[in-house]
Write a structure and sequence with these properties.
Strand content: 15-25%
Number of domains: 2
Radius of gyration: 24 Å
Order of helices and strands: HHHHHHHHHHEEEEEEEEEEEHE
Shape: elongated
Distance between the termini: 58 Å
Number of strands: 12
């Protein structure tokens, strides 16, 4: 035990004398986690996710941890060590989640704001003058930084560790992050307790409201499209599209049309997603599909639309979304007046990511979220479920 005490004491003195050392170690291990999870996700993602959540658990027990170290190792944890440990957890966490969100982000949508903010926060975590002299003294901003990082970690880790659907993981992540932020604010602020509680409650309520309304702007960290196609028929033996179309004539809709998607998801995750069919921006159908994670090339699922409007000509868009209305990706095709017009897309069409106008970027996702929440409540009351096809 005396040897352990000496090693610990030496590490504490080195951390206090060379504060940049822990920041460098955190940065290198964070980048290592980045590539480890990206390349060997199925094998190592659960372990790395557990380590991330464990780091946050220790961070929340900061005072108990300091007393325990003093009791067992006979050395006090210097304040610089505690601060750098917090910084290292931020670095590890942000560099862990960024590859997931980078892959799943629709870069021409509001999701750009969320992922861009994560990347900016990761840069701040490795620049000591900004982290300690600008961020840390502004306590309200620091608590936002802290809570937002935890929110992103839980969004990524909970589906991997507990195999819970993305919509449920979003609710749990938002709830845990807001509650812990509230407790930290009440403990840290210096004025009267009732003023601290009121201020913290107001800020947390505002953050929770923004989290609910901004769900379309948050990428689903563990879901992304690996292949998509608009096709008139599916090869049931191969579970693959016969053709890939990007333009067709109205006569070709008589036998229906398939929207084919292959969706990557973590092993063990069962998820309900939706194909939302839109004509010139107006929703005309929403078809649910259940997927299972674990297939390297993505779980293959498709919706088959048979009934089209009397005048189907125009630009069609199929949004692939989660139950929480988070956009996974988009398929596009057009229908022309020429009844026999047809144009095939390139083989293995890559998924397209969304959004074209300020109205779609800001107003429409919020309106759609509120509308669909009301419709979901009504559907639950009436116990009606639309039908879809999966493999």
């Amino acid at each position: 035990m005396s040897f352990v005490k000496r090693i610990f004491s030496l590490l504490a003195r080195l951390a206090a004398r060379y504060p940049g050392l822990l920041a460098l170690v955190g940065f290198v291990s964070g980048v290592a986690s980045f590539f480890l999870v990206e390349r060997e996700q199925d094998k190592f993602a659960q372990l790395v996710s557990l380590l991330m959540v464990g780091g946050w658990f220790l961070l929340m027990l900061e005072n108990l941890l300091k007393r325990g170290v003093s009791h067992w190792f006979g050395a006090e944890l210097p304040d610089p060590v505690v601060r750098f440990a917090t910084q290292m957890v931020h670095q590890e966490s942000l560099f862990f989640v960024i590859p997931f969100f980078f892959i799943t982000t629709a870069w021409n949508s509001g999701q750009l704001v969320f992922t861009g903010l994560l990347m900016a926060m990761a840069a701040i975590s490795v620049i000591d003058p900004i982290y300690y002299k600008w961020l840390a003294p502004r306590r309200w901003l620091y608590f936002f930084y802290h809570g937002f990082t935890l929110f992103a970690v839980l969004l990524t880790a909970l589906p991997i560790l507990l195999h819970i659907p993305t919509a449920e993981a979003y609710r749990w992540s938002l709830g845990i992050a807001t509650v812990l932020s509230f407790l930290n604010m009440v403990r840290d602020l210096s004025f009267a307790w009732w003023r601290r509680a009121a201020l913290a409650l107001g800020l947390v309520a505002a953050a929770a409201a923004v989290g609910v309304l901004a769900r379309p702007w948050v990428p689903p960290a563990n879901l992304w499209l690996t292949q998509v196609a608009i096709t008139p028929s599916i090869n049931n033996r191969e579970k693959a599209p016969e053709k890939r179309l990007k333009a067709l004539g109205s006569a070709q809709l008589e036998d229906g049309l398939y929207a084919y998607t292959a969706i990557h998801a973590p092993r063990g995750l069962r998820e309900r997603i939706y194909h939302v069919w839109r004509l010139n921006g107006k929703t005309v159908d929403k078809i649910p599909l259940d997927i299972n994670g674990g297939r390297e090339a993505g779980y293959r699922a498709w919706s088959h639309k048979l009934n089209f409007p009397p005048y189907p000509q125009g630009n069609w868009r199929i949004d692939v979304v989660t139950e929480a209305n988070q956009v996974i990706g988009v398929l596009r095709f057009s229908v022309s007046d020429n009844p026999q017009a047809s144009e095939e897309a390139q083989e293995k069409t890559l998924p397209e990511k969304v959004i074209t106008s300020p109205a779609e970027l800001i107003r429409d996702p919020i309106v759609d979220t509120l509308t669909e929440e009301g419709q979901a409540l009504l559907d639950n009351v009436l116990k009606e479920k639309p039908a879809g096809e999966t493999d």
